[in-house]
């Protein structure tokens, strides 16, 4: 049932979307886990603890509310692209291509900025999905790093972008456009002017999980120990439900817009493959 707020009526489709995504991801996750070399243990970070050798502190962030989130909330139709494929999914609207943050999304990002500044968070690198809403959230949420002219680099990476394909909100704008709008971000790792990951079909869950796993393995190889990753709901669900081994059930749940989770990650190889 929707609830009225001013003249608009809002519908709670996100809960249904979460359950659908979770069902499909879990169905393929077990098989993928058997193929992966590394096991990644993770837990909630306690500010007083010292990082153990071989671990990294990663602040995972979901972008603030985007205009596609608002459009979905105002639509009578939910996304059924995994099932019925009625064509009524609100994310299919070309007007929602690579949407920006709504005023509420900006407010959520500014709340994150207050938290990150109050906690004196000093990540060594900030990774952002190359989609506009994630870039905005990263730059606003950690703007103290920009304002202080910190040496911390903001880097756009395809590995952390949302499940791609079909949904216009998950189609990246041309590289030259986003480079021009966000000069504070390095786009060296993105080579194609056009979005070559995006197709008329939704990226498979297997491919999403493999992309997320590969990104997390790459973080192990990085010299930085404190990292920010600003991404999206389904990507984060894939990481927290399937890629990371997390004991706490509540810590694995769907990210709210603008939410940040401080997570300690440790990479382990099976004993017979260790050096």
Account of the protein in words:
The protein has 275 residues and is an alpha/beta fold. Helix content is 35%, strand content 17%. The chain is built from 8 helices and 10 strands. The strands form 2 sheets. The protein has an 8-stranded mixed sheet, with helices on both faces. Strands 1-2 form a two-stranded antiparallel ribbon. Helix 1 crosses helix 7, helix 3 (103-118) packs parallel to helix 4 and helix 7 (205-221) crosses helix 8 (233-243). The radius of gyration is 18 Å and the shape is globular. The model is unreliable at 1-7 (pLDDT under 50).
Described by the principal axes of the CA atoms, the overall outline is globular
Number of strands: 10
The residue-averaged pLDDT reads 91
- Quaternary status of these chains? single chain
> Which strand order spans the largest sheet, edge to edge or round the barrel?
7-6-5-8-4-10-3-9
Measured by DSSP, the beta-strand proportion falls in 15-25%
Uncertain parts: 1-7
The topology string of helices and strands comes to EEHEEHHEHHEHEHEHEE
N-end to C-end Cα span: 56 Å
Helical segment tally? 8
Q: What structural category characterises the helix and strand content?
A: alpha/beta
Rg calculated over all Cα atoms: 18 Å
Portion of residues in helices?
Answer: 25-40%
Largest sheet: 8 strands, mixed
């Amino acid at each position: 049932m929707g609830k009225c707020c001013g003249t608009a009526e809002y519908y709670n489709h996100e809960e249904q979307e979460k359950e659908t995504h979770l069902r499909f991801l879990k169905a393929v996750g077990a098989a993928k886990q058997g193929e992966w070399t590394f096991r990644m243990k993770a837990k909630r970070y306690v500010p007083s603890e010292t990082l153990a050798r071989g671990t990294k502190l990663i602040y995972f962030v979901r972008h603030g509310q985007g205009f596609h989130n608002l459009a979905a909330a105002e639509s009578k139709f939910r996304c059924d692209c995994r099932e019925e494929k009625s064509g009524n999914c609100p994310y299919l609207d070309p007007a929602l291509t690579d949407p920006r943050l709504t005023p509420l999304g900006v407010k959520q990002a500014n709340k994150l900025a207050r938290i990150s500044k109050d906690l004196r968070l000093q990540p060594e690198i900030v990774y952002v999905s190359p989609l506009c809403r994630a870039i905005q959230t990263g730059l606003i949420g950690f703007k103290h790093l920009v304002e202080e002219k910190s040496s911390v680099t903001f880097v756009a990476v395809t590995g952390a972008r949302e499940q791609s394909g079909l949904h216009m909100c998950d189609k990246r704008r041309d590289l030259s456009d986003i480079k021009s709008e966000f000069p504070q971000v390095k786009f060296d790792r993105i080579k194609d002017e056009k979005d070559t990951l995006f197709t008329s079909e939704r990226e498979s869950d297997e491919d999403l999980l493999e992309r997320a796993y590969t990104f997390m393995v790459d973080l192990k190889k990085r010299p930085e120990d404190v990292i920010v990753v600003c991404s999206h709901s389904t990507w984060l669900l894939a990481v927290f439900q399937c890629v990371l081994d997390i004991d706490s059930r509540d810590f694995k749940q769907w990210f709210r817009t603008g939410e940040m989770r401080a997570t300690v990650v440790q990479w382990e190889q099976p004993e017979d493959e260790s050096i």
